[in-house]
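Per your request, structure below.
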């Protein structure tokens, strides 16, 4: 059985009002990106449906409105795991 190709998409949120795709990788590079993210304490989730939807967003583009809810759920999970509130997040002004 062939091992599925690993993919990674990274989002940035805080510098702009809408999350943006800042990285896309697959295969070995994706595995290295995910390992480094985990090493640095960056939250990583595996969601095939969200990955598929984000694959249609260009690099350095904001996510489309139809993905706002899914990404908001993901961000709230990250805040909760880190014990943060949205007020603790960096903003575009600071």
């Amino acid at each position: 059985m062939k091992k599925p190709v690993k993919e990674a998409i990274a989002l940035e949120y805080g510098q702009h009002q809408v999350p943006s795709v800042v990285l896309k990788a697959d295969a070995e590079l994706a595995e290295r990106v995910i390992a480094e993210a985990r090493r640095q304490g960056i939250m990583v989730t595996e969601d095939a449906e969200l990955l598929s939807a984000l694959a249609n967003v260009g690099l350095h583009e904001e996510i489309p409105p139809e993905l706002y809810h899914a990404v908001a759920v993901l961000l709230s999970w990250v805040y909760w795991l880190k014990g943060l509130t949205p007020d603790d997040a960096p903003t575009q002004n600071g």
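DSSP finds three helices and two strands in the chain.

Regards,
D.
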